Amino acid sequence: MTNRYDTGMQVRRRVLGDAHVDRAEAARTSEDTPFQTLITEAAWGTVWASDGISDRERSMLTLALLAALGNFEEIPMHIRACARTGASRVDVMEAFQHVAIYAGVPRANHAIKLAKQTWAELDKDTN
């Protein structure tokens, strides 16, 4: 593996947590290994590894982009990651307000619904 891959795995674990990454790695197959390598090197080893902006800001941008583009499947994962990146619930809601104005209320509304469901699960797990 490349240095970028190794860096990507470190960043991925820092942001998403060992349990998430371990589950993803256990589900890896020979068919999706090239894709997993690509996202580990490009998303995690390049974009998320950059020190140009903070992990908190990157979480907010990621959540806004996912919502704006209608890629709702990954929103809960990135909501859970906020506990590690420092993006607060207020930060997330601010990002989704931008989505409402610039990408549409229905997308922001659905993203908020997913965030609230994920926060309820997290709150239940901590009680």
Automatic annotation (TrEMBL):
EC identifiers of the protein: 4.1.1.44
One Pfam family recorded for the sequence: CMD
Keywords, in A-Z order: Lyase
PANTHER family in the record: 4-CARBOXYMUCONOLACTONE DECARBOXYLASE FAMILY PROTEIN, CARBOXYMUCONOLACTONE DECARBOXYLASE-LIKE DOMAIN-CONTAINING PROTEIN
The Carboxymuconolactone decarboxylase-like domain, residue ranges: 35-116
Protein's name in the database: 4-carboxymuconolactone decarboxylase
A GO molecular function held by the record: 4-carboxymuconolactone decarboxylase activity
Keyword DNA repair among UniProt keywords: no
Gene3D superfamilies (UniProt xref): AhpD-like (1.20.1290.10)
Lyase keyword on record: yes
Superkingdom in the source lineage: Bacteria
